[in-house]
Amino acid sequence: MPHSVRSSSNNKEITMTNAGADMRLEVAVIPVSDIDRAMRFYDSLGWRLDADFVRKDGSRAVQFTPPGSPCSIHLGRATGLFLIVSDIEAARAELTERGVEVSEVFHSGDGPGRVQGADPERRSYASFASFSDPDTNSWLLQEVTARLPGRVDTDNTTFNSSAELASALRRAAAAHGEHEKRTGGQHDENWPDWYAEYIVREQAGEELPA
Question: How far is CA 170 from the centre of its chain?
């Protein structure tokens, strides 16, 4: 069952659910023959443009999100579905235990192609694994621990596992340690409010507290 708490500092809700390794269907790849033409169409629908950039391999990444939708689309030349996870190794292990043939974890290097292993710096959006169903429909696991600006509902901060929440707390703890150094090293009695503010802002892609 989901557990919700409300941050007293900004009246925003923080939700945590527990259901094993979290795997959220968040992206469907739509094959298009002309990305610019497709962009004009989806823009005319009033869909939010989240991203438009060129990857290291030279391909173009374009993402739109329909109003109010938790799932986005990527425009490209192939099809596929993205499952967003907070721990790529744990998600892969769970699928393997269920008898699914999953690729080794990989990341993108400085050039085209895959590099074996998770991203060395464990950056958000940078580590992957893949599998297919019996009809060759492809699924891509992508590890996301901190959202880029503009890609989440800023009024609801959600954690789908205790591991995901723990990771956010560790980042908040490290940042708060630097905060206490700047304030003379004195213990901050209001650290719970500071942690909550940091976590909510981080996931919403807003400016972090000083």
Answer: 17
Residue range 69-118, pLDDT digits in tens: 889 999 998 889 999 998 999 999 999 999 999 999 999 877 677 899 99
**How crowded is the C-beta side of 176, counted as CA atoms within 13 Å?**
20
Residue 90 burial (10 A CB sphere; 0-12, 13-18, 19+): middle
Look at residue 140 and give its three-state secondary structure.
strand
pTM (predicted TM-score): 0.65
Residue corresponding to tokens 């060129």: 54
Residue partners of 188: CB distance under 8 A and separation at least 6 = 176, 179, 180, 194
d(CA 191, CA 194): 5
Instruction: Output the pLDDT for position 7.
Output: 44
How many CB atoms lie under 10 A from the CB of residue 128?
22
| Of 42, 46, 155, 161, residue with least CA distance to 94 | 161
Which two structure tokens, joined as six digits, stand for 40? 């004009």
User: How many residues are recorded in the chain?
Assistant: 210
